[in-house]
Design goal:
The structure holds two protein chains of two kinds. By secondary structure, chain A is an alpha/beta fold. Chain A has five helices and eleven strands. The chains are: A alpha/beta, B alpha+beta.
């Protein structure tokens, strides 16, 4: 099992993903954004950070990196792809996932623990969780306010493609539990085929109890076991 | 001042006075020009003698920035020599871009703190952002990967709109830079006082780790070796920033926004990765970042440290603007640049790595063995001066100092002359104090910082010291920044000692061993004898404190002129301390962890209300004698804490300082929303009134949470170390109840927590 971690100029959670892979016992390797090939990897992670400085819309330049064609091809072939934070934004910009992220309604960067409810446990990255489970993943972003047109939102809802939602500790969805103004409290979604997942919160920051929790471990364990079974859930 | 073409600079100016016979050439620069650049007439003469000729305009400009207070420490150097800088753990002391200490197993920690006060006053966002950028570069210049930022901030009160604008901008600037570069901001402090309305203080500390053999220094050696400028291009920003920082922040100076640089954290991130790749591939002989005084500083310092000279061709400097003249190129403080001497023959490889990161790299000259810094453009020699004269030979002044009259006057204030609060008022007083600017939660600030990126933050902001794991190891480093400006104002020497003590205590509370110190000496105009006295006393106090804890000073900076010409800031010697933990798993947090634990108060509570938060908040009085620094008690406490952590006795441990026991207990309860029942009767060894027990700020105290079964062992350890330990209660419930000799008070943890958490945000919203 080998996780490929795409490094854009300005990525800064790449090493954190490497650590998470190490914790779950997976091999990993960095893929430079100018590489055109992702062969040899069983899963691809687009890490958080500020690709190209995020001076334009987040992820808007990163999506033109040569590696993204290979990532798209990998995804179309059913390969598991995870985008976290800036990586999620890059997936949105590249069209692998629908919608966009706007600035947080509070107009500030927010770094804090955040409760999430998991609503889709059929993806390569979530199948070891229980549906409806409430997890604690930290958030750290200024532009995490998920937005999509009403038709897209309806489609996401109807097809059960909303994977993570900001929630209260009891799992209820309230405005108070929504840190950034996201529509339908959306924190993470998946594509139609369920192999591409993107989320704003950082599961890789909660894979060791010494760092404040282990709720994120199963994201990485899920994809390991999914790949281990040849993609059968 | 306007830039000039050096070729015809000042030649038409009228000369006054005869030329000195021993000095070659004729004076070509007008006195008003060097004065405008911040040099005195005496300094001009000194330069002539040192270099044996009349400097031309460019040379004067180069001397003016290198001899500015900011770069030369001319008014502080002699006093700073009093600081202890040597120690077993010190691998690099002051004089380099950052200090480095050994943390065992071939690993080391590089760290330094610097101020960016003036820029942040006139342009809060960019001032603070580039303050972060500069100190981050200082760390990776040494070959270290930065893994933590701390930001001690000092602002004017939030009831003023300009102050709110500054606070907002500074916090956003630090966040905007550090978050993007991907270095967690794990700690710091914020302190509010009227004296900072004129001139806020933005101190930033950065910490990195490296292996011993990865240490690189800012030295240019080997005649014939190439000199490369890498990173960003050179533009017209920040010209004369160092000079701007070396004068009072008058209204006129506040208009000089052009002296403030503009930061590009994305470029910094690329430069960081590129530089660490250069170090990892062993392509670097010497490297130094370009900060204050830009190319002038980097070229002269690197040459001087290496005992070399350097020849630089300005035509080869990659520029971002056309038509830049030599003066602008040599003084530009464009950010995110580095000067380096690569391993000979490896210039191509260096360029390839920089290209990979989309950065510029250019050979701009070479190292020479003549000791002269020679600057050329279009084949003309524009400046030719001994590098060491520029970098090392600025005058060092003895300044007059005199104890300010207010010290004795305020120091003699007796808090007992005020009416004592009634017992029924105490709960309300604590609530009010918990929502005050200096004591309330700083969540609004640190939630804007990514404090977790890097997957190493073991103890997050909001407690005492932060603890960060060194990647790939089980080692931890504890980090804190501390100073109580009010103590320093009332009694500068004691204030500085207390700052070191607080830092050492906070580091030890996590279980770490205090190692070494960096500092920012923030003061007013050093030409004022009263200000100089406070500065000198602060340094003496710092020296004394560091001796006590065996924590040498490995660097830092001095920021003078923090005043508007009339009002100066409080003497603010900010301490940054680094400690090490061999087993990061044993790091002890603050805040009650669970119900049913025993609470133990370590240390004695004395009648020490002088300079306290209680006096300031409840009576608007900043007077009295600050608590006494008790070296023996502090040392004993630290060895006790280190052992107790190692034995695993402490579930949580918290410093008891500003706001006294009342605030310390409350903070412990608020940490995880766990109340406590406390009785202070047995701990009252000095027969204090209930309110004094609550609000005294006696130092060398701590609150320890311990499992009841381990309480006896903890007590025994305390006796062994000669510290007083008092069992004062148990954790649990949703109330904090404090009793003493038949008196009691009760606080609802959730309710007080609400106002504690929201106080700063509300104040900043102008509510």
């Amino acid at each position: 099992m080998k996780i490929g971690i795409v490094v854009f100029p300005g990525s800064n959670c790449d090493r954190d993903i490497e650590r998470a892979a190490e914790v779950v016992g997976s091999e990993s390797g960095f893929i430079w954004h100018k590489d055109k090939d992702v062969r040899g990897y069983d899963a691809i992670v687009l890490p958080g950070g500020f690709a190209h400085g995020d001076y334009l819309r987040c992820g808007a330049i990163a999506r033109f990196s040569p590696v993204m064609d290979a990532v798209s091809e990998f995804a179309e072939g059913g390969g598991p792809v995870l985008g976290i934070c800036n990586g999620f934004q890059t997936l949105l910009e590249s069209g692998l996932l629908p919608g966009a992220t706007l600035r947080n309604t509070g107009l500030r960067f927010i770094c804090r623990p955040q409760k999430l409810r998991i609503d889709n446990v059929n993806t390569p990255f979530t199948h070891l969780y229980k549906k409806g489970e409430v997890l604690d993943f930290p958030i750290a972003h200024a532009e995490g306010n998920y937005y999509a047109d009403p038709d897209t939102i309806k489609l996401l809802e109807d097809e059960g493609r909303i994977v993570f939602r900001y929630a209260e500790p009891d799992g209820s969805l309230t405005e108070a539990s929504n840190p950034n103004g996201s529509m339908h409290n959306i924190a993470g979604i998946t594509n139609k085929t369920g192999n591409v997942v993107g989320l704003m919160p950082h599961p890789e920051r909660v894979v060791e109890s010494i760092l404040g929790g282990t709720d994120g471990l199963r994201v990485f364990k899920s994809v390991m076991s999914w790949c281990g079974k040849g993609g059968v859930r | 001042m306007a830039a000039k073409d050096v070729k015809d600079m000042g030649l038409d100016k009228k000369m006054n006075g005869p030329a000195n016979a021993a000095i070659k050439g004729e004076r070509t620069v007008a006195p008003e020009d060097w004065r405008a650049m911040g040099l005195t007439d005496e300094e001009y003469d000194m330069i002539c003698h040192r270099i044996g000729k009349h400097p031309n305009f460019l040379e004067v400009a180069m001397f003016s920035v290198m001899w500015s207070e900011h770069c030369s420490y001319k008014n502080s150097r002699k006093v700073l020599k009093l600081l202890p800088t040597k120690g077993e753990c010190v691998l690099q002391g002051p004089g380099e871009n950052a200090g480095i200490v050994d943390v065992g197993d071939g690993l080391a920690v590089a760290f330094k703190m610097e101020s960016h006060n003036h820029p942040s006053a006139v342009e809060p966002y960019q001032g603070a952002a580039t303050g972060s950028g500069g100190i981050i570069r200082d760390i990776f210049t040494m070959g270290a990967r930065p893994i933590a930022i701390l930001d001690p901030l000092f602002f004017g009160p939030t009831d003023d709109a300009r102050n709110r604008h500054i606070i907002d901008g500074v916090v956003a600037g630090i966040a905007g830079y550090g978050n993007a570069v991907g270095i967690p901001t794990v700690g710091g402090m914020s302190w509010f006082g009227k004296c900072y309305s004129v001139n806020p203080l933005v101190n930033v500390m950065c910490v990195g780790y490296l292996k011993h053999d990865e240490i690189r220094r800012g030295k240019a050696t080997g005649a014939g070796n190439k000199v490369m400028l890498i990173g960003s291009t050179t533009g017209r920003d920040g010209i004369h920033g160092a000079t701007f920082a070396s004068a009072d922040l008058t209204e006129e100076a506040q208009e000089r926004k052009s002296a403030v640089q503009v930061g590009d954290p994305f470029r910094e991130k690329l430069l960081l990765e590129a530089c660490l790749e250069l170090v990892a591939k062993d392509l670097v002989l010497g490297i130094q970042d370009l900060g204050a005084a830009g190319l002038t500083c980097a070229t002269s310092e690197m040459a001087s440290r290496g005992g070399s000279g350097m020849r630089v061709e300005l035509d080869l400097v990659p520029k971002r603007e056309t038509g830049m003249n030599p003066y602008e190129i040599m003084l530009s403080e464009s950010q995110e640049r580095m000067l380096m001497v690569p391993v000979p023959g490896k210039e191509g490889e260096v360029t390839d790595i920089l290209r990979k990161w989309d950065l510029d790299a250019a050979v701009i000259g070479e190292v020479t063995d003549c000791g002269t810094l020679t600057i050329t453009m279009h084949g003309d020699v524009l400046a030719e001066v001994p590098a060491d004269q520029l970098a090392e030979s600025a005058p060092a002044y003895d300044r007059e100092y005199v104890k300010p009259a207010y010290i004795d006057e305020l120091g003699s204030f007796d808090p007992d002359t005020l009416p004592a609060p009634k017992d029924g008022e105490l709960a309300g007083i604590i609530e009010k104090m918990a929502a005050s600017a200096n004591l309330c939660s700083k969540h609004w600030i640190y939630s804007q910082y990514d404090h977790q990126v890097g997957s190493g933050t073991v103890i997050k902001p909001g407690g005492d010291a932060a603890v960060v794991r060194i990647p790939g190891t089980n080692k931890g480093i504890a980090l804190t920044t501390d100073v109580n400006p009010r103590y320093c104002y009332l009694y500068p020497r004691e204030g500085a000692k207390l700052a070191v003590a607080e830092a050492a205590r906070k580091v030890a509370l996590t279980g770490a061993k205090p190692l070494a110190v960096t500092n920012c000496q923030n003061h007013g105009n050093p030409m004022k004898p009263e200000v100089y006295w406070s500065f000198r006393e602060s340094v003496l106090g710092l020296a004394e404190g560091c001796e006590v804890f065996g924590t040498p000073v490995t660097g830092g900076n001095v920021s003078f002129y923090n005043e508007d010409g009339e009002t100066a800031i409080y003497p603010t010697p900010t301490i940054g301390m680094v400690g090490s933990l061999d087993d990061v798993e044993k790091a002890v947090p603050s805040g009650f962890k669970r119900s049913g634990s025993s609470i133990v108060l370590i240390g004695e509570t004395k009648d020490e209300l002088g300079g306290s938060e209680y006096l300031s908040i409840m009576h608007g009085i900043e007077a009295g004698r600050p608590p006494r620094f008790d070296a023996a008690a502090e040392k004993a406490l630290i060895s006790f804490l280190t052992e107790a952590a190692d034995e695993g006795f402490m579930l949580s441990a918290h410093d008891c300082a500003e706001g006294g026991l009342a605030i310390a207990l409350l903070e412990d309860a608020l940490g995880n929303g766990i109340g406590a029942e406390v009785d202070l009767s047995d701990a009252n060894t000095h027969g204090l009134a209930f309110w004094k027990m609550l609000f005294s700020e006696s130092t060398a105290r701590a609150i320890i949470e311990v499992e009841p079964v381990k309480a006896a062992a903890l007590q025994a350890l305390a006796r062994k170390n000669g510290v007083k330990a008092f069992y004062i209660g148990r954790t649990g419930g949703d109330k904090l109840t404090v009793r003493m000799a038949g008196k009691s008070l009760e606080l609802d943890v959730k309710k007080v927590g609400g106002s504690y958490e929201k106080a700063l945000e509300s104040a900043l919203a102008g509510r």
